[in-house]
C-alpha cells in the first residue's frame, strides 16, 4: 500500500491553500512511515533564481507506524518559491507527482510551487470574475521593428488596445458572431502588453 507523505492540495498538509501574501505564515505537515527508519526531514525552499534554504521540520508525534512533522515559514518577499522535502537519510527526498502528492525518490524530481504576492496587491475591479487568455504568438517571432509595427496596427484598428497600465478600464466593445445561426452579442476585447 502506498503512503501519502504530503499533498499540496490538502489543507492538513499545507495551510493556507494556494498563493499567500508576503509576511503570511505557511504551515507544512509531512508524514513519514516508521519503517523508513530514522529520518530528519527538512523543507528545501528555493526562491526563484536564488539558493535553496533548508528548514528543519519539527517532530510532532506519532500515530500507528507513522511519524508526523511540521514546519511554519513566513516568506517575507513576493515571488515564486519552489520546494521539496529532504529526509536527510539515504539521500531520500520527497518530490511532487502531477496530482500534487509527494513521492519518495532517490533522484531529483519535480518541486512544488508556492506563489507569494505583495500584501497590498488588489485585483482591479474590472477584471474580477473575468477570464483572461494569454496568447502571445508575436513573442516568438519578434524583430527589431515589432513595437513600432504593433503600435501602428493598434492606431489603425480601433478594436485593439495596448495596455500600459491596469487602470482605468481598458476596453473596446465589438460585436461577435459566435457561429452560424447564433445571435450577435457584445464582447469586450483587450490586447495587453505587459511592461
Could you characterize the architecture of this molecule?
This protein is mainly β and 195 residues long. 6% of the residues lie in helices and 38% in strands. The protein has one helix at 146-156, and strands at 14-15, 20-21, 26-33, 42-47, 53-56, 58-63, 66-73, 79-86, 93-96, 102-105, 112-117, 162-163, 172-177, 184-189, 191-192. The strands form 4 sheets. Strands 2, 4, 5, 8, 9, 10 and 11 form a 7-stranded mixed β-sheet that branches. A hairpin with a 6-residue loop joins β13 and β14. The protein starts with 13 loop residues before the first strand and ends with a strand. Mean pLDDT is 81; it is low at 172-195.
What's a quick, concise take on this entry?
With 195 residues, the protein is mostly beta strands. The protein contains one helix and 15 strands.
Structural topology:
Elements: E1 14-15, E2 20-21, E3 26-33, E4 42-47, E5 53-56, E6 58-63, E7 66-73, E8 79-86, E9 93-96, E10 102-105, E11 112-117, H1 146-156, E12 162-163, E13 172-177, E14 184-189, E15 191-192
Parallel strand pairs: 2-11, 12-15
Antiparallel strand pairs: 1-3, 3-7, 4-5, 4-8, 6-7, 8-9, 8-11, 9-10, 13-14
